[in-house]
Amino acid sequence: MIEVAGRRASTLPPIPAVLIAVVSVQGGAALAKGLFPVLGAAGAAGLRLVLASAMLLAYFRPPLSRYTRAQWAAIVPYGVALGVMNLTYYLAIARIPLGLAVTLEFVGPFVLAVVGSRKALDFLWVLFAATGIVLITPWTAHPGGLDPLGVVLALTAGACWALYILMGGRLSRRVPEGQGVAAGMVVAMLTVLPFMLREGHLERLTPGLFAAGLGVALLSSALPYTLEMRALGQLSSRTFGILMSLEPGVATVVGWLFLREHLTPLQWLAVALVSVASAGATLTAKQLPPPVEA
User: Can you give the residue ranges of the EamA domain (predicted)?
Assistant: First the structure.
């Protein structure tokens, strides 16, 4: 599978690469959520990043000691954004359904995609997305309602997602694609490692859980982030963000099929509105070339 992410990604067009990454990430998230009762959300996030780092380092062999200060200046922000995004996302899906967490997380890349736009249709997509977010947000506390902290964590993950898109585009122009992902993953792992150790559930790790962790690392990190770096080198941040925002619909279906997470009619409507906004903005997005590094 890493063979696919590394060598075959070089011939895979950027849009299919992003779509494969979306499906892979959500499948990995569903698998990871099964680890939460034993390892905790931070423990599962840390295990995922440790194993993904090992996979990518072994395959791409980035020359970490030979990178310049300018290259590390691109690697470190990318890795920190990636680590915090993973941690807050896992903490969010431990509290709220997968599909709703991804829908809220979508705020980050969606805002990035439409910022500065003056097209009338783009304002319509913003209205659709905003309506969806309003329908999800727990305005009043009541038994059985969404956890407000879970909502905040998902929105935080969304902000980190927007930073990841921006930093990833910069990194892809300074470090070769696979090596940049591997180096960034190491930084992400070091960012999350203190939270993983603080949670203190690693003594519960069994061979079966370790194997599941390998699957999560492959599906959620090694494969999709390599594919995304390939796409980030060819697509504008705006276009990439819109394509990635197809995740709410995919995540909702995955949560329903594999996690038995049933949404209310209003929540389904919210996801549908966000998905329509995503599709509409994709159709109207201007295909801009990646910005050139000064």
Answer: 149-278
Looking at the structure of the chain, the number of domains it has is: 1
Give the C-alpha distances (Å, rounded to integers) separating 293 from 74, 172, 173: 11, 10, 7
Which whole-number Å values give the CA distances from 168 to 149, 173, 236, 247, in the listed order?
Answer: 28, 9, 11, 18
Residue 223 near residue 1, CB atoms below 8 Å: yes
247: in domain? yes
By C-alpha distance, which of 180, 230, 222 is closest to 13? 230
Angle ∠(265,267,270) on CA atoms, nearest 5: 115
Does the residue 293 lie in any domain? no
CB count, 10 Å around CB of 25?
25
* Residue 65: inside a domain: yes
Residue 3 counted as domain residue: no
Dihedral pair phi/psi, residue 140, rounded to 5°: -130, 145
- C-alpha to C-alpha distance for 225 and 185, rounded to whole angstroms: 9
Query: Are the C-beta atoms of 29 and 220 separated by less than 8 Å?
Result: yes
Distance separating alpha carbons of residues 271 and 277, to the nearest angstrom: 10
pLDDT tens digit at each of 294 positions of the chain: 444 444 444 578 888 888 899 889 999 999 999 999 999 999 999 999 999 899 889 988 999 999 999 999 999 999 999 999 999 999 999 999 999 999 998 888 777 777 767 777 878 888 888 899 888 877 655 556 688 899 999 999 999 988 988 898 888 888 887 788 899 999 999 999 999 988 877 778 889 989 999 999 889 877 887 787 778 778 776 677 667 767 888 899 899 989 989 888 889 899 989 888 876 766 665 543 333 333
> Is the four-CA dihedral 38, 39, 45, 50 of positive or negative sign?
negative
How many C-beta neighbours within 10 Å does residue 103 have? 32
* pTM of the full structure: 0.83
